[in-house]
Structure formats: C-alpha cells, structure tokens
Amino acid sequence: MSNILSDEKISANLCAVIEALGMNNASFAKQIKKSLANVIEYRENKRRAIHLVPFLIELGINGNWYLTGEGEMFLQDVTKPALVREPQGSYNNQNPDYSKIGKMLVDTVEAAMDAAKKRK
C-alpha cells in the first residue's frame, strides 16, 4: 500500500490540479460548488484538502495521485473538467457513483491516518 502524503503535500497537489485545469480559485470553487473562501483555505492547508477527493475524481483527477503522488494526475486525457465536457456515450444506471467512491476513499484514508497517529 502506498503512503498517504501529508496534508501540506495534498494541498500542494490541489494547487497543481487547479493550475493544470487552467482555472483560478473562483472558477474552481464554482466548478466544485464550494465557496471561494473554502477553496483558498484548502489551498493554504487551513482545511484538509483530502475532503475534495470525490469532487476531483468527478473532474477526472486520479485520486491515487492526489493522495500518494504516484501515477498520473489525470485519469484520462482531459482538456476541460469532466463536469463541463460534452457527454461521451450514453449514461445509464450502471455508471459508478464517483462521489460515493471518493467519500469511501476519504473515510478509509482518514481512518488509516488516525490509526497511524495513535501508534506514534
């Protein structure tokens, strides 16, 4: 299992994501439906940026890269965020709910980080 990055490094990855998407704080906040103030706090590590994993996965960001630094930043070749791209193919009930998957990932990572802190 890969090691999870520190909160500071995850915040740095968030900054890299926003830049790679060609967005500023305001446009990114609007895209993920968060306030501008919250996005700034996530970027400055005043809020735990790990909580943005579900939103980033929906934008085509590789959650593994975001949390561990391993692999590619994007899950696929994207030039625009997934939420504003034209649909590719038909959507049906068999598509995974990435918000739920991302939330489960965050919960699992947080539990592992808490357990590691208790061992120290």
Characterize the structure shown.
This protein is an all-alpha fold and 120 residues long. It contains 6 helices and no strands. The chain has helices at residues 7-20, 25-32, 36-43, 53-58, 63-68, 98-119. Helix 2 crosses helix 3 (36-43). The longest helix is centred in the last third of the chain and has 22 residues, at 98-119. The two termini are 19 Å apart. The model is unreliable at 80-94 (pLDDT under 50).
Which sequence of SSEs, written as H and E, runs from N to C? Answer: HHHHHH
Helix count?
Answer: 6
Counted beta strands: 0
Strand content: under 5%
Number of domains: 1
Please state the CA-atom Rg, rounded to the nearest Å: 15 Å
- The best one-word shape is globular
Helix/strand structural class: mainly alpha
Estimate the mean pLDDT confidence: 80
The main sheet comes to: none
Low-confidence stretches: 80-94
Percent of residues in helices: 40-55%
Kindly report how far apart the N and C termini lie: 19 Å
Secondary structure blueprint with pairings:
Layout: H1 7-20, H2 25-32, H3 36-43, H4 53-58, H5 63-68, H6 98-119
Helix pairs in contact: 2-3
What are its keywords?
6 helices, 120 residues, mainly alpha
Q: What is the gist of this entry?
A:
The chain has 120 residues and is mainly α. It is built from six helices and no strands.
